[in-house]
Specification:
Distance between the termini: 34 Å
Order of helices and strands: HHHHHHHHHHHHHHHH
Radius of gyration: 21 Å
Largest sheet: none
């Protein structure tokens, strides 16, 4: 089964394949009883199945959601608030994808907004720090819906703020609390942080490159994430060697894309050195999306 479509919307593969699920399950074990965990697993199975079927069969997907909704309606009055919020988080994210695939972007937008609000309550409870990265995923989904609803400017503004927060951990209009900033700096969550950098920043940069938003060497390549990288790279949080390599990569990207280091003047030797300072995940992404390393220098004229 090809999960790429689901992860673009619902959860990126770096999170789902490893750290996020482990942290999520460990958290459930800490704060929910066995019976409550079983309730979460049973109900969430209906909704996650709904997501899978929404990719190819909306009728079956709707049946999955209806079955899960009936179960929740029977349990609703007896669910503790914390347990209800966890189930609501799963439902809102999953059903928003269903509406997205069905072309009902207004209802999808409302459910994504509800998922963000639920996550804020869960994080504020003090026990579910890893859900900050779930919120980043929700906001990223939200920007996709905004573009669908012809609100590209608002989507770009949110993408820029997400990118700035991922790079600098400075509170902003989206994540305004000091707690959120502290979570972003916690190296225990670095695998989640890097997976979101991959999805939110790197994938967006490549889209901006592919769209060839190039206005000449005076202005350079333009786009909300490119602009965020340029403005934030100097203040990027550096706590590990990977952070340092990533910061140098973003600085180099910023110079090339701004026109201050025109691609046609960027020597093959310099670019080879650039690659050596690139974390493995970025090298793989570049190889996949732009071309093999031998072709990268030639393709830099797109920047």
């Amino acid at each position: 089964m090809d999960y790429r479509d689901r992860y673009k919307w619902n959860k990126n593969s770096f999170i789902s394949d490893s750290a996020y699920l482990r942290m999520y399950i460990d958290t459930l074990k800490q704060f929910f009883s066995l019976q409550e965990r079983q309730t979460i697993y049973v109900i969430s199975k209906y909704f996650t199945d709904g997501v899978e079927y929404a990719r190819k069969n909306l009728e079956v997907a709707n049946a999955c959601f209806e079955a899960g909704e009936r179960l929740v309606s029977r349990l609703d009055s007896g669910l503790p608030p914390l347990l209800f919020d966890f189930i609501a988080n799963i439902y809102n994210r999953s059903k928003s994808y269903y509406f997205h695939k069905a072309g009902d972007h207004q209802r999808a937008t409302r459910l994504v907004a509800a998922a963000i609000e639920t996550n804020e309550r869960l994080i504020a409870s003090g026990h579910f720090d890893m859900l900050l990265f779930d919120s980043i995923s929700h906001y990223h989904n939200y920007t996709a819906l905004l573009r669908r609803n012809n609100q590209a400017e608002k989507a770009g503004s949110i993408l820029g703020m997400l990118s700035a927060f991922l790079l600098t951990a400075r509170p902003n209009a989206i994540f305004s609390s000091d707690k959120a900033a502290a979570i972003m700096k916690d190296t225990a969550f670095y695998s989640l942080k890097y997976s979101n950098i991959h999805t939110v920043i790197l994938m967006s940069l490549l889209k901006e490159v592919e769209q060839r938003r190039f206005t000449g060497h005076s202005d350079g390549m333009q786009g909300p994430v490119t602009d965020a990288v340029r403005s934030c790279v100097a203040d990027m949080v550096v706590q590990t060697d990977d952070d340092d390599r990533l910061k140098r990569w973003f600085a180099c990207y910023s110079n090339i894309s701004s026109g201050s280091m025109p691609a046609r003047e960027y020597s093959s030797e310099a670019f080879d050195q650039f690659l050596k300072n690139t974390p493995n995940m970025i090298m793989g992404l570049l190889a996949e999306k732009i071309g093999a390393s031998g072709q990268l220098t030639a393709n830099l004229h797109h920047l």
